[in-house]
C-alpha cells in the first residue's frame, strides 16, 4: 500500500498512476476527496495531527506528501503539517517522498541542478529549505522531488491561473514578471511520474530530484504557442498592475518575483539518467488546456 497526502492535481495524478498499475492507495485529505477508483481508499483526516495520521500510515511502503496549505498560510500551517508527517513516517517505517519546488535555491544565474546548494532569499524559500533539511536530519529514508511552475488541467501557478485563461479568451495577458526570459515549466502528470519513480528507487533516499521540464520557453513564446494551438489571437502582454498584489494570496508573490523577472531554469539531467524519465511533449500538455474551453475566433 502507498499513502498520499493531498488531492490537488499532483496528489490526484499520483494516486491514479499508482492505482492504474494495480497498487492500492490510501489518500488522505481534510475533506476525504480524491479520484474515484476501486484501488484508491479516500480518508478524511487532518494530516497535521500525528495522532490521527500515524495509524493511517501503518503498513504503507511509501508516503507521498503532495499537500500544501493555502499560499498565504505557509509560515503557520506548513511546519505542523511537515512535523506530523515526519513523525508518522518514522513511527511507521514508510519511505518519505516530499513534493517540493525551487524556492529553497534562491536566485541563480545558471540553471538549478539537483546539486545546487540551498541559498534561499525569501521567507517561503527559507521555509521550503528547512522542511527538507529537517527531514534529512532525521536519518529516515526521505527524498524530495522539485518542480518548476505547473502546466496541465487544474495546475496552480501564476501562469496557469492568470495567463492561460486570458490567452484562450483572446484577452490581454496580465501576469507578473518579464514575459521574455526563459522559464522552466512542469506538467502535473510528469511531476506525479517523478514522485513515483523516486519512491521506487533505492538510490533516491537522501537526495533531491528534478521533474523533467516540458519546455524552457519564455511566457510570451509559450503563450503564442498555446494561442496557435487554440486558434486564438496572438497574445498581447501588458504590465501587471501595481494594485494587483492586494489580494491575500497575491500579496505573497512579490518576494518570489525574482523567479519571473530573470531566467529560472531547472536542469533535470541527473533525474532523467538515474530514473529513466522524459518529459511529455509540450504541445500534448498545452492541448489539455483547450479541451473545456476551445472556441472559434473571428
From TrEMBL:
Q: Which residues form the NAD-dependent epimerase/dehydratase domain?
A: 6-203
* InterPro entries reported for this sequence: Epimerase_deHydtase, NAD(P)-bd_dom_sf
Q: What is this protein called?
A: NAD-dependent epimerase/dehydratase family protein
